[in-house]
Recover the amino acids of this structure.
């Protein structure tokens, strides 16, 4: 009988991609994925970006511990694995606080999982033989020299229509609030040819849209076939030449790495979608400097304008942090002013969350109520602009890519070039169809099919 694997993924798209790779890798060893919470192996692919994510991990682990005990009472075992960024950051602390966890594996070493599972089995067997040694979980959180991308199976089919492809990992920017440079390590870019090869495999399996992933994706600097280091614009051009690829996106970017050639690529590559996630974090130059963001608001607005010149219909999304140490009411107002200027189509906003080991965590903190109030004000403004953007689609005809089945029977979820959701009841998955938009809501659009493209 095949063994079962349950993966729970937290956090960003990078983790979604990694979880899929883990599924493929363990699938090759005979593990079948299951949505059931009790399984032979339960793997939590964790996020460490904010404190809440960490709290959530330990409360989930408590729940899985109960399920594990239940299974053990029935003579079965359940291997609990903690993977991802909290695994990297907390390491042995997880095994100490939750001793029923069997394995802790960081994002750079999960390709060792098959050996780790074998090692675990050996240790468990030894324990059963009655030597009475205390059982100790397996820990693997190094940053190996060898790239994980060369170790992973290439069998992945992330989604039937829209897939992620990880091209870059890690970050050298060291924003003062952020754990990523510590959990994901130094910036690393894959070679162009290995990315093209993975894209070809995805396309063969029917994928129509590829989203290139990286913590700092536009800092991409991989080697091409001649061994020359090239940037993201080169890679995008190469990918755009692949037949059958209908849509190309990339995320997440840093304003500093938005180079002229990359901006121009937005005007030159039709299948590069006119929607860009470009985090700004704050509208106050003082706070941006304290955050070590290496850009000002003026610099950011220049990039936005240059992108609009290259691709007039382009829309933007962003990330914001409110309540960073030292943020005054005036600084916060400047963030709202920037939001008014850019009119983002969509955005994510967070209260600053001190992360142990990062420079901002030891500075004087803003009270929680102040952060919460600012967040509420900012989110109301962002929602207003998101709704206005969606309403501005009314009367337009947009190409909608049919991505996956909706919740209701017969319903299909499609996406506009700007990532807006449109629910339809006709067409086949993978098709792009023209839809006349009749209403724009906060989180979706409604429309009527005009014709099939
Ligand atoms: N507190 C709050 N938000 C954070 N982010 C990163 N670190 C923190 C933190 N310590 C946000 C940033 C980033 C997004 C992925 O998460 O806005 O762009
Ligand atoms: Fe974190 Fe800044 Fe790197 Fe983004 S650019 S991953 S916010 S350190």
């Amino acid at each position: 009988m095949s063994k079962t694997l349950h993966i729970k993924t937290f956090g960003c798209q990078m983790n979604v991609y990694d979880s899929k790779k883990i599924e493929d890798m363990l699938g090759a060893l005979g593990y079948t994925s299951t949505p059931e919470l009790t399984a032979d192996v339960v793997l939590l692919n964790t996020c460490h970006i904010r404190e809440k994510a960490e709290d959530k991990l330990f409360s989930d682990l408590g729940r899985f511990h109960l399920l594990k005990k239940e299974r053990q009472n029935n003579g079965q075992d359940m291997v609990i694995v903690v993977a991802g960024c909290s695994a990297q950051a907390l390491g042995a602390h997880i095994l100490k606080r939750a001793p029923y966890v069997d394995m802790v594996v960081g994002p750079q070493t999960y390709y060792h999982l098959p050996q780790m599972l074998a090692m675990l089995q050996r240790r468990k067997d030894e324990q059963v033989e009655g030597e009475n040694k205390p059982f100790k979980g397996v820990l693997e959180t190094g940053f190996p020299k060898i790239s994980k991308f060369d170790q992973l199976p290439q069998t992945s089919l992330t989604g039937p229509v829209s897939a992620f492809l990880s091209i870059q990992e890690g970050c050298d920017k060291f924003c003062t609030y952020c754990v990523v440079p510590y959990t994901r390590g130094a910036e690393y870019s894959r070679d162009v040819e290995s990315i093209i090869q993975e894209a070809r495999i995805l396309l063969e399996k029917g994928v129509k849209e590829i989203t290139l992933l990286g913590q700092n994706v536009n800092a991409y600097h991989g080697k091409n076939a001649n061994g020359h280091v090239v940037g993201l614009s080169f890679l995008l051009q190469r990918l755009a030449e692949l037949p059958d690829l209908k849509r190309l996106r990339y995320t997440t970017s840093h304003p500093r790495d938005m180079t002229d050639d990359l901006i121009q690529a937005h005007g030159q590559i039709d299948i590069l979608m006119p929607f860009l996630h470009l985090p700004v974090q704050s509208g106050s130059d003082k706070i941006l400097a304290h955050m070590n963001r290496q850009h000002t608001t003026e610099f950011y607005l220049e990039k936005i304008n240059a992108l609009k010149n290259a691709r007039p219909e382009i829309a933007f999304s962003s990330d914001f942090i409110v309540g960073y140490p030292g943020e005054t009411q005036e600084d916060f107002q400047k963030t709202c002013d920037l939001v008014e200027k850019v009119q983002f189509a969509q955005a994510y906003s967070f209260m600053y969350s001190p992360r142990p080991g990062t420079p901002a965590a030891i500075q004087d903190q803003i009270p929680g109520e102040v952060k919460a109030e600012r967040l509420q004000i900012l989110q109301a403004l962002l929602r207003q602009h998101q709704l206005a953007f969606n309403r501005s689609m009314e009367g337009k005809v947009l190409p909608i890519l049919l991505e996956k089945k909706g919740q209701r029977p017969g319903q299909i979820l499609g996406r506009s070039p700007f990532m807006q959701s449109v629910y339809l009841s006709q067409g086949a998955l993978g098709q792009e169809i023209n839809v006349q938009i009749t209403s724009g809501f906060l989180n979706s659009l409604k429309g009527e099919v005009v014709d099939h493209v």
